[in-house]
Amino acid sequence: MTWSHHHSELTTATPAQLWTRWTTAGYWHVDDPGVEWARFDGALVEGATGVVKTHGVPAQTIEFTRVEPGRAMDFTIRLPLATLAITHDMAPAAGGTRTTHGVVLDGPLHRIYALLLGGTLARGLPTVVRNVTAGALRDGDA
Amino acid sequence: MTDVDVVVVGAGLSGLTAARALQQRGLRVRVFEAQDRVGGRVRSATVAGAVVDLGGTFVGPGQERILALADEVGVARHPTYDSGDNLLLWRKDRRRYRGLVPPLGVAGLLDLVRVRSALERLSRKVPVGRPGDAPDAAGLDARTLGSWLTAKRAGRGTHDLMAVVSRTSWGCEPSELSLLYALHYVAQAGGLDALLGTRGGAVEQHFVEGAHEVAVRVADALGDGTVRLGSPVLRIDRSGDGVTVSTDDGPTTARRVIVAVPPALRRRIRFAPELPSAHRRLAQRWSPGILSKVYAVYDTPFWRGDGLSGMAVSDEGPVFITFDASPRDASRGVLLGFVGGDYARDWDAVDAAERRIRALSALADLFGERALRPLGYTDHRWAEEDWLGGGPTAAPGPGASGALHARLTEPVGPIHWAGTETATRWAGHLDGAVSAGERAAREVTVALTLEAVR
């Protein structure tokens, strides 16, 4: 059993622009108001790791679990008796690109974490999606 | 002998109404307008064969002045479509509902009713036209609507719904707006139901040919040469016997001037001698909100076939509230969406193609994939209008309402003030613009009559 929440939007940003935005650690704190900083340990491939520091929370190790250039990128954070996955997908749609960000909680204590963190994570998704697309479009203009 | 009796600055509905009333009393009037069109915060466009209002749109019961003016110039109205179910897209759940009460669950509804009742009770203590005389006016003015909601322990759902009200009414977030200003705004409209309601409220009707047509017809009736477009007023010099109003085309002398621009735009005019300090502070602190409008025009109002009214509220944005603005004969389906407050700050900043796809994406979340394929689309960002700076009305922050409100209309020698913000009833609406213009014209007429008697 899992708890999940997703948010999709259409954008004129291209898959290449979005991919750059997703996979550049230096943009994460710009696009997500909750993030203080992020870094990756080497090349972005499945199984690669990194560290994310969110405001008010100790830095946490992340592991990339899905890396499909121009299409999808997921990473997970291990919590006591649960796993938090942050998912990113994109696909062509309606003359643009449909981009979807999600949060998925899994594991024995996923319901507890959903109660504690779920609302905040879910409410933040639309803002992050719009920040990413706006940043991707700015990158494209540069 | 002056060039004219009265100069009016601004050819919005308020300035035009003032000019019309003065002319009807036999006075010589000239209107200077900075933009190349009349109407100010009303403007219309035709999109895929449908007339749409890019600015002020709706009228309702109790708004006698705009209704009377529209009748006089022959612009007809029709009811805003409200048959069928409304939609609420809330926490990823799309629900149908009827009337003004959204389906928030028992606990959510009880909280909403509790907070809303408290707000209405508090608003009734604020004297209309004199918010500074309310009990503890300074205390109310020192807080924001948002901080009051927090102090009332409003639940997140209630807070988010009040944010919808705030973005729609003032183009800002609750955390940006003086509580006293919000309370007075609710009081002068006659309560939240009157302010927000379709049937029996301020969005009950709209104009067949668009609200802009009212302004166009009033301007046309003023006669050739009365309204000077593309003529921003740069300076107003006042002396004992009148004013000199300067534009790029030179000075115009008059016995009185009516400045009918949004309060923040008063700063664009150089007054000599300077205005009193409270008047200057008003112009500095009564900045407008940010509200943009989106229209998607379809071959038919397809949502009606699904039993939907076209009215929807969403907590996702950027389009956070919609209405069915289709023509009376339903020859086109027109969805009107609002983008305001923080949503507008993000959305206004992206290019036209991105604004379009984001807006249609939001409409599709509400009304289905068909919403992605309109015959026509347009949007209008009022914050991008150089001579208006935002909309729909002023959104003063904490500390800017109580003491400064009285300066909205207080003449400074031969300088009088109009504009919807200066109205004592329906300020921020089309009706307020008209009644404020009429009030300013009355003031000037009385002043000139008294001068003549002396």
Could you list some keywords that capture this structure?
heterodimer; A: 142 residues; alpha+beta; Alpha-D-Glucose-1,6-Bisphosphate, Chain A, domain 4; seven-stranded antiparallel sheet; 3 helices; 44% strand; globular; B: 454 residues; alpha/beta; eight-stranded mixed sheet; seven-stranded mixed sheet; 33% helix
Overall description:
The complex is a heterodimer of chains A (142) and B (454). Chain A has 142 residues and is of the alpha+beta class. Chain A has a domain at 2-24 and 65-136: Alpha-D-Glucose-1,6-Bisphosphate, Chain A, domain 4 (2-Layer Sandwich), CATH 3.30.530.20. Helix content of chain A is 33%, strand content 44%. Chain A contains three helices and seven strands; from the N terminus they run βααββββββα. Chain A has helices at 15-22, 25-31, 110-141, and strands at residues 2-11, 35-40, 49-54, 60-68, 72-79, 82-93, 96-106. Chain A has a seven-stranded antiparallel sheet with strand order 1-7-6-5-4-3-2. Chain B has 454 residues and is an alpha/beta fold. In chain B, 33% of the residues lie in helices and 22% in strands. Chain B contains 13 helices and 20 strands. Chain B has helices at 13-24, 64-73, 105-123, 137-142, 145-151, 156-170, 179-189, 192-196, 212-221, 277-285, 342-347, 352-367, 430-453, and strands spanning 4-9, 29-32, 44-47, 50-53, 58-59, 77-79, 85-90, 93-97, 205-207, 227-228, 235-239, 242-247, 250-259, 270-272, 291-298, 308-314, 321-324, 333-340, 376-381, 415-417. In chain B, the strands form four sheets. In chain B, strands 1, 2, 10, 11, 12, 13, 14 and 20 form an eight-stranded mixed sheet that branches. The longest helix of chain B has 24 residues, at 430-453. In chain B, 55% of the residues are buried. At the A-B interface, β1 and α3 of A face α12 of B.
